[in-house]
Amino acid sequence: MIPGTYLIPGSTRTGQTGRVGFFVLAIAALLAAFAATVHPATAQDLPTEISGRVVQGTVGSELPIGLTVVLLVVDEQRQEIISNESTLVGTNGEFTFTDILSGPGLTYRIAVDDDEYTPSVDLVPGESSFTDVEITFYERTQSFDDIRISTYSMLVPSIDRTNRLMGVLGVISLINNGNRVWVPDLDDPNLTGLNLLRFNLPEGFTDLSVESDLPPGDILAIPTGFALTNPMPPGEFNILLTYIVEYSGDSLAFPLRLPYGADRVRIMLPEGDGDISGLGFGTAEGAIIEDTAYSVVDGQDYARDSQLDVRFSSLPTPSFLEATQSFFDGRGYIIVIAWVAGAAMLGLLVYAFFFSKQRAGGARPVRAGEYPEYEGLPREEIVKTIATLDRQRDDGEIEDDDYAARRSALTQAALSASATEAQPT
C-alpha cells in the first residue's frame, strides 16, 4: 500500500502525538513503498559514508537554525529500522554521516525532522549515490491559494439495480503550484473540515476507502464526506477513493463541491444505465474501458467554491419479480399484512404467488395427512414457513421434489386457514 493509505471510513484524530512519536510514525508509514524498489547490492557497493545538503525550496527564505537530519538504517528482510542517528545541518545545509552501518539487505533513509512534514530521500546500495544527497525543505503555509484540482474523475463501474446501489471509483489529482508546503493547523481547538483538505460525497455513502500518494496523515469523518490532514508539498498528488451509495427511485442527486476549483471534471457511467447532468457538462460521449462501453461527460475550468449539482437520472430499477423478492426478503410483508390484508385477501395472495410457483415447478400430489405438522397452523406461521422453505431451497438444503411437495401442503393449509379464521375488524 502506498503512503497515505486509509481503509477505515469515519476514523477520527484523537489527539496530538509528540514530535518524536509523529516523526517515527511518519517514517514507518513510508517504509512499505520503499521496500518494493530494493535490489541486492554487491560488496563493493556497500557504503561507509553519506553526505549531502538540505536546500531551501521556498524562494526568499532561509533554512531554520538548528535543523536536524536523521539517518535510518533499514533491514529489508525483517522490515524494521535497526539503527538511527541524527546530526545538525551546517550553515549552508550540509550534513555528513560517517562510519555508517552497512551490509547485505540494508537500505537507508535520510529525512529532515520537521514536525508535521518530513521530507526524505531513500538510498539503495548499487543504485543511489551516497554523496551529494539533496533534500528540499519548504516553508509552511495554511493557505489554500496555491492548491487546485487538476482532474476530478468519477467512474461508476457497477450498479446493483435490485438494491439500487452504485459502486463508485474516484480519482482526484491535486496540484500545489506554490513553493511552500501546505500543512493543516492541528492545534486549532475548533478543528473542522474547513481548514483541512476536504471533499464531499453523495449523501448516504458507505464503505469508503481512501488512498493517496501524499505524505502520511489521517482521514477524518465530516458530515458531508471526508477530510485529510496530510501535508502537501509543491507538486502533483493523487487521491483514490471508492464507496457505495444508494439511490432512490431512478435518480441520484450529488451536489459536488469544488472548494479548490478544478481544471477538469469527468464522470463515467455504463452506457445504457442512465443519464448525467450538471453545471458545465457537455454532450455525453462514448468510451470503451476494459471492454465495457461508458457514457462520458466532461466539464472544464471551474472556479473555486463551485457547486456542480450533478444528477444521475434514468438509473436501472428492479423488475417486478426482483422487487417482490426483495420485499419478501426484507420481511416487509408482515407490516403490510398487519395494516391492509384481511384473511380473504391474504388467501388470494398466497394462492396467486405461492401456489402458481409450486404448480410451475411440477410438484407431485400431496397425500392426505402427509405433513401433519402443517395442519392447523395460523396464516402468519404458514407464510413464515414458506419463506424459510424458499431460503432452504435456494441454499441447497432441500431437494426439489421435497420442496415442491411441502410447498403444496403449505398452500393447501393456507387456503384452509383463510376460509376458517375470523375476519379482522
Structure, explained:
There is one protein chain. The protein is α+β, with helices and mostly antiparallel strands and 425 residues long. 21% of the residues lie in helices and 35% in strands. The chain has 6 helices and 24 strands. The strands form 7 sheets. A 7-stranded mixed beta sheet has the order 13-16-10-9-19-22-21, with no helix packed on it. It is elongated. The N terminus and C terminus are likely disordered.
Range of helix content: 10-25%
Determine the CATH topology of the largest domain. Immunoglobulin-like
Strand order of the largest sheet: 13-16-10-9-19-22-21
State the CATH class of the largest domain. Answer: Mainly Beta
What's the gyration radius in Å? Answer: 32 Å
Q: State the oligomer.
A: single chain
Please write the string of helix (H) and strand (E) elements.
HEEEEEEEEEEEEEEEEEEEEEEEEHHHHH
Task: Report the mean per-residue pLDDT as an integer.
Answer: 79
Distance between the termini: 64 Å
Please give the largest β-sheet. Answer: 7 strands, mixed
Q: What would you call the structural class?
A: alpha+beta
Gross geometry: elongated
Low-confidence stretches: 1-39, 331-346, 348-363, 419-425
Domains (count): 3
Second rung of CATH, namely the architecture of the largest domain: Sandwich
